[in-house]
Amino acid sequence: MPNTLSLTDSRVPNPGNQPVIIRLENVFKVYGSGEAEVRALNGVNLTIEEGEYCSIMGPSGSGKSTAMNIIGCLDRPSSGHYYLDKLDVAEMKDTELAEIRNKKLGFVFQQFHLLPQLSALENVMLPMIYAGVNGKERRDRAAEALKRVGLEKRLNNKPTQLSGGQQQRVAIARAIVNRPVLLLADEPTGALDSRTTQEVLDIFGELNASGITVVMVTHEPEVARQTQRVVWFRDGDVVHSHLSPSDLGHLAVS
C-alpha cells in the first residue's frame, strides 16, 4: 500500500534536548562478495537520544535485526561509524566490546535464555559476576532488580517453576541489574500471550519512565504503539526515522 504520509526523512536528525546515546553514521553491513553479495544495511544513519523508548520495525529482511546486532555490539559494521554513549565502538577489539556489552547494555530476547539449574536470583546475579561485583552486593542488587519486576516472592524459584511471563521478567531483571545506559529488546513478547505481553510491556514502560533508554525490535504493531517512536526499516535502510505510533495504521507491516 503506498505511503501518503509526510514523515521525517531518515537523514534529518530529530531536534531534542537530550544527549544522543546511539548514532549510526553511514553504516553498511555486507555479506558475501560478487554476485553473492548481500547488503543487509545500506548506509544507515540513525540517532536515538537518552531516555527514548523506541521501536524498530520493518518487513522480514529489511535489516532491522542486523541493525540491532550492531547497536548491541554483537556484530560490526562493514563500514561506517557507530557511536554508543559517545564512544566509537565500530573498531573496538572483541575484549573491549565484551566489556561494553556487560557494563553499558542490557539484552532481552524472545527466548529467555535462563540457566535451568539456577534460581531466579542466581540467574540475575550472573552478569555481575563478570562485572566483578562482590558477593553481597550481587545478591542485594539482584533481589532489588527482581523486586522492580514484581518477583520479590520468587527469588528462589527455578525457571521450570515459573510461567513464561515470569521467566521473561527474570530476563528483564538480569538485563537491568548492571544499570545499563541502554536496554535492547529483540521481539521480547514473541513467545507470550496477550495478557502476559501487556504485563511485560508495562514493565518496559516503567523502566523507561525511570530514565532507562529502551530500543525494541518488534513485528507487532500493537507492541510498537506502546513506544514513543517507531523507526521503519526497508531494504537495508531507514526509510522513516521518527514515525509516531499512531502512523502505523497507514503502513503495511509485511
UniProtKB/TrEMBL annotation:
PROSITE patterns from the UniProt entry: ABC_TRANSPORTER_1 (PS00211), ABC_TRANSPORTER_2 (PS50893)
Keywords in alphabetical order: ATP-binding, Nucleotide-binding, Transport
SMART domains assigned to the protein according to its UniProt record, in alphabetical order: AAA (SM00382)
Domain of life: Bacteria
Parts of the chain that traverse the membrane: none
A cellular-component GO term for this protein: membrane protein complex
ABC transporter domain span: 22-253
MF-aspect GO terms: ATP binding; ATP hydrolysis activity; transmembrane transporter activity
PANTHER family noted in UniProt: ABC TRANSPORTER ABCH.1, IMPORT ATP-BINDING PROTEIN
Name of the protein: ABC transporter ATP-binding protein
Highest classification ranks of the organism: Bacteria, Bacillati, Cyanobacteriota, Cyanophyceae, Nostocales
